[in-house]
Design goal:
Strand order of the largest sheet: 2-3-1-4
CATH topology: Alpha-Beta Plaits
Bound molecules: inosine-5'-diphosphate
Order of helices and strands: EHHEHHEHHEH
CATH architecture: 2-Layer Sandwich
Oligomer: single chain
Distance between the termini: 16 Å
Helix content: 25-40%
Strand content: 15-25%
Largest sheet: 4 strands, antiparallel
Number of helices: 7
Shape: globular
CATH superfamily: Nucleoside diphosphate kinase-like domain
Number of domains: 1
Length: 142
């Protein structure tokens, strides 16, 4: 298995619920390292650019409204098989379909307010990590 990086976002609903620490703890307990992190309130431009692949989808405006409704915590997670491992920890996009014990099953309210984002491939991860972080903001521990 390869050591990978993936981009994780704790979305505004989870920040509002005060579960930042609980979510980060799940990543660490699963063997992922947090090698970069920042809290920020996304501008519309930032959210639209991040989700550009969904621009034509009917839920795009709601998604951007939601992602700019409050602060988020953006992180880079590093570890073996990090992309898939994070997707497994997150659970399905719709929390009603998310497996028990996953982040979305435990903390998400609905398909649009679904607690976390995680890159869905190593290709997306590379783009998404670079979207939020410059190389000197990433601190691998080796
Ligand atoms: P993912 O976050 O599980 O990778 P994507 O299909 O990439 O899911 O969708 C990005 C985000 O768009 C989802 O996390 C969710 O917040 C929102 N979204 C996806 N599908 C719908 C929908 O049918 N209605 C409302 N929001 C949706």
């Amino acid at each position: 298995m390869a050591v990978e990086r993936t981009l994780s976002i704790i979305k505004p609903d989870a920040v509002a619920k005060n579960v930042i620490g609980e979510i980060l703890s799940r990543f660490e307990k699963a063997g992922l390292q947090i090698v970069a992190a920042k809290m920020q309130h996304l501008s519309r431009e930032q959210a639209e650019g991040f989700y550009a692949e969904h621009k034509e989808r009917p839920f795009f405006k709601d998604l951007v409204d939601f992602m700019t409704s409050g602060p988020v915590v953006v992180q880079v997670l590093e570890g073996e098989n990090a992309v898939l491992k994070n997707r497994e920890l997150m659970g399905a996009t719709n929390p009603k379909e998310a497996a028990a014990g996953t982040i979305r099953a435990d903390f998400a309210n609905s398909i649009d307010a679904n607690a976390v984002h995680g890159s869905d491939s190593t290709t997306s991860a590379a783009r998404e990590v670079a979207y939020f972080f410059s190389d000197n903001e990433i601190c691998p521990r080796g």
